[in-house]
Amino acid sequence: MKQGRSGKLTGRLAAAAFWLGLWALLALLVDRELLLPSPAQVLAKLWALVRTAAFWQMTGMSILRVLAGIASAVLLGLLGAALCHRSALAMQLISPVMTLVKSTPVASFIVLALVWIGRDSVPVFITALMVLPVVWANMTAALAQVDPQLTEMARVFAMPRGRVLRRVTVPSVLPAFRAALSSALGLGWKAGIAAEVLTVPKYAVGRMIYEAKLYLETTELFAWTVTVVLLSLVIERLLLRLVSRIGRERRAADA
Amino acid sequence: MLEMRKLSLSFDGKAVLADCSLCLPAGGRIALMGPSGCGKTTLLRAALGLQKPDAGTVRCEFRRVAAVFQEPRLLPWRTAAENVNAVLSDRRGSMPQARAWLERLALGDACERYPAELSGGMRQRVALARALAYEPELLVLDEPFKAMDEALCERVVALTAEASGGAALLLATHSEAEAEALGCRVLVYRNGAFEPGA
């Protein structure tokens, strides 16, 4: 059934209200903040955290790490996909590596990375490593599906390579890129924060989650988790909007 | 000049043409006629360098080549005018030229419309406008008028004949009238090759 924009928003708000209500009810039944704090307690804690400079320092550094990891993965994923699209040998070489990365537990990589590289760089590396196969797989599939009739047309009309890229290839793969970026952002935050929890860098949301767990500060643990979820959602929205905007501006500039 | 010597070509693994030769000089016009599936499109693809022959050689000395395929092959994310402009240049400067070609093909109102908003016949005319705007030395046409009604077809064929000027033309068609209107020498499919018609 089709819904209007306001209908969708109402639906979403109603769903959020339902789950928040259920959470509040469960917290009331459990009646122990240590086990399950209520939404109001978490919100109060979050408000208290937001007003400290440390909160912004921790979240700022985590955002930088996660975005650096995702950006590296997107760059390498695009490059790898382009390479595999052009060369069967590259595909044979890269494909098993991606399968291996995808099926290896993230904890194994974190421990290995702790041995290989500095503690502060591990979350960036882990984020990139977890996101890379997703971007690569999506973009490889998207490049394989670029309409061969259009590439033939471009070839017959001797369109320069740059123009083919801008007018045929990029618009063809843009929807897949948006989907890949959306998955990459969700996964990137999960992997990055998990790596921070295990490596405990000086300034990191992961460190605060680790310490909250250590001192049984369940409400604070919830507050930091909510922070990560909100950051992930906001950054995903902003980046996807940016990609769409770039697509539109590119089109307008080329026209 | 386009020269094809002793070509053997397959389609979907099945041999369609054998020992087929053809020579198209600058300004020359040839129409290929024959039943569906006889290899007209396959021969055009070989002429465009899109298909490697199983045997024989293709030598194309034309530098600017344009084609209208059986499918319009338009960029779905571009308007009709942008589609024509896409083969002309990267800049907006050539847009008036693109629009003028669309107007000549009675598509003045469709300039800012996307391919999905056009009928099959209109899309094919956009593809034709794109090919003519390119000002080719060789124009390859693969049954480009088949999605048009009779009156429109006559008009577009006449316009193509006039607008293609001194370009060499290689046409695949089922219609002798089209071939004649475009001033083509007709080659008919016989025993795996194209030979001059009766």
Descriptive key words:
heterodimer; A: mainly alpha; MetI-like fold; 10 helices; 85% helix; B: 198 residues; Rossmann fold; 6-stranded mixed beta sheet; 3-stranded antiparallel beta sheet; 6 helices; 30% helix; 29% strand; globular
Relative helix content of chain A: over 70%
Based on CA atoms alone, the radius of gyration of chain B comes out at 17 Å
What would you say the CATH architecture of the largest domain in chain A is?
Orthogonal Bundle
Number of domains of chain B: 1
Number of self-contained structural domains of chain A: 2
Q: Count the E strands of chain B.
A: 9
> CATH superfamily membership of the largest domain in chain A, which one?
MetI-like
Overall pLDDT level of chain A: 90
Strand content of chain B: 25-35%
CATH superfamily of chain B: P-loop containing nucleotide triphosphate hydrolases
Count the DSSP helices of chain A. Answer: 10
- Low-confidence stretches of chain B are none
**Mean pLDDT across all residues of chain B, rounded?**
90
Number of strands of chain A: 0
First and last CA, distance of chain B = 25 Å
Total of helices of chain B: 6
The helix-strand sequence of chain B is EEEHEEHHHEHEHEE
CATH topology of chain B: Rossmann fold
User: What top-tier CATH class of chain B fits best?
Assistant: Alpha Beta
Residue share in helix of chain B: 25-40%
Structure description:
The complex is a heterodimer of chains A (255) and B (198). Chain A contains 10 helices and no strands. Chain A has helices at residues 5-30, 39-50, 53-86, 88-103, 106-116, 122-144, 148-156, 161-199, 205-214, 218-254. The model of chain A has no long low-confidence stretch (mean pLDDT 90). By secondary structure, chain B is an alpha/beta fold. Chain B has one domain (24-52, 63-196): Rossmann fold. In chain B, 30% of the residues lie in helices and 29% in strands. Chain B has helices at residues 40-47, 80-86, 95-104, 120-133, 150-163, 176-181, and strands at 2-11, 14-24, 29-33, 55-60, 65-68, 138-142, 168-173, 185-190, 193-196. In chain B, the strands form 2 sheets. Chain B has a 6-stranded mixed β-sheet, with helices on both faces. A 3-stranded antiparallel β-sheet of chain B has the order 2-1-4, with helices on one face. The radius of gyration of chain B is 17 Å and the shape is globular.
